[in-house]
Amino acid sequence: MSLSRRQVAAAAVASVPLAFAATGTAQAGGRRSRTLYIAGDSTAAQKYSDAAPETGWGMALPFFLRKELVVANHAVNGRSSKSFVDEGRLDAVLGAIRPGDLLLIQFAHNDEKDEDPTRHTEPWTTYQDYLRMYVDGARARGAGPVLATPVERRRFDAAGNAVPSHGAYPAAMRALARREGVTLLDVQALSLALWQRLGAEGTKAYFNWTATEQDNTHFNPPGAIAVARIVARELLRGRVLAHRNVRRLDEEIPESWISWPAPATA
Fold first, then answer.
1. Any idea what DSSP says for residue 15?
2. What percent of the residues of the chain are helix, what percent strand, and what percent coil, each to the nearest 5?
3. How far, CA to CA in Å, does 66 sit from each of 12, 30, 147, 236?
4. Distance (Å, whole) CA 152 – CA 187
5. CB–CB of 8/90 below 8 Å?
6. CB half-sphere exposure, 4, CA atoms < 13 A
7. Measured in whole angstroms, how far is the alpha carbon of residue 221 from the centre of its chain?
8. What is the pTM of this model?
9. pLDDT tens readout for residues 38-86
10. DSSP assignment string, 23-86
11. Strand partners, 26
């Protein structure tokens, strides 16, 4: 049985646990806390106990933000800028977002999959077209869009140099951000530089390398914390957030702070 976009959007909202989808709570004086929504893929997504130790950087971002800034992580494994829209997930976010909130948009990993027409976009055409839907949708509701270039994979050449893996997608996002006047978090460039400093062996401690899996795309707790720190610093640098909104940018974050809730049951 096929589902309408409205039904899919409702399911998308229901699939986000209450603790991660809160849209702000009342505070003294009647002020509502702001919410930072994340629209993205598996590198940012909430993970559950059946996937541990895999960790999305969105799970660690709250450690660097003050409690009055709530993180609503709508990132989902396997989604591209296109499939996130086609499944009604952007509609679900835009149905909840409020004036003054933020929408952080990070896609490309799955847009790159040209063998899959349900997810593939072209960097300089359809990728930018879909990203503009997020930007325009947030702005129409009085919220602030923020574009984040895709975090880099763990990829090194024979000489030990960290090499980019996202083709023209980061450049296309940078160009769109300039043209539309949207704040850009250059997570791709900064994560690539971090992997270069850590080296081919050192980066294994940041990715989901286990006794049974060598995953060069997804993170473990140290990796998710490191990328979340990059995101928080970029939000501050880009003046999306003020110093009063962030915390612990230069502090060690214990891995034990990461937790994986049980998977939701149907």
1. T
2. 40, 15, 45
3. 26, 18, 21, 13
4. 8
5. no
6. 3
7. 15
8. 0.89
9. 999 999 999 999 999 999 999 999 999 999 999 999 999 999 999 999 9
10. ---B-GGGPBPEEEEEEE-TTTS---TTTTT-B-HHHHGGGGB-TTEEEEE---TT--HHHHHH
11. 32
